[in-house]
Each structure stands twice: as structure tokens, then as C-alpha cells.
Write a structure and sequence with these properties.
It is a single chain. The chain has 78 residues and is mainly α. It contains 1 helix and no strands. The longest helix is centred in the N-terminal third of the chain and has 16 residues, at 18-33.
């Protein structure tokens, strides 16, 4: 479900304001979570993903599936 068409080089994002980029990302997140009204959002890095398994009613969204978010740059971080 990765939005590869929305993956732009850092230079290409200049044509979009920060607010526009955030709106695009927020809409994708809203579409993923549906009618839920979350009170907390967590971004978990390498080695912490299992923490989410302990949460009730958790919804997972891969970082790479959020348009306009930068891709990871460290090998092994995916």
C-alpha cells in the first residue's frame, strides 16, 4: 500500500508547503484508521514494534505507507 507516487526527493517537496504535506499524510492516516478516534499515536522504531502488541485496540500503519513522510535511510530500518 506504499504511496510511491507520493515519495519525492527532499528537493521535490519544496513545491508543497509543510501544511500541505501534513494534510496529505493526515488524510492517509485517517483513511487507514476509519471511524476510530485515537487519543494517542505512537511512532515506534527498531526493536520497539513488539510494544504495540501489548496495547488494546491498536492499529498498525507502516511508516512507509504514509505519503509525504520521508523514507528511512539507515540499513535495516524498514
Amino acid at each position: 500500500m506504499a504511496h510511491t507516487k507520493d515519495r519525492l526527493s527532499p528537493a521535490a517537496t519544496v513545491s508543497f508547503s509543510l501544511n500541505e504535506q501534513l494534510d496529505i499524510a493526515a488524510e492517509a492516516i485517517r483513511a487507514h484508521i476509519g471511524a476510530r478516534q485515537p487519543t494517542v499515536g505512537l511512532v515506534l522504531g527498531s526493536g520497539l514494534g513488539s510494544y504495540a502488541d501489548k496495547l488494546d485496540d491498536a492499529v498498525a500503519l507502516d511508516y512507509g505507507d504514509i505519503p509525504r513522510f520521508p523514507l528511512w535511510t539507515v540499513a535495516g530500518h524498514a
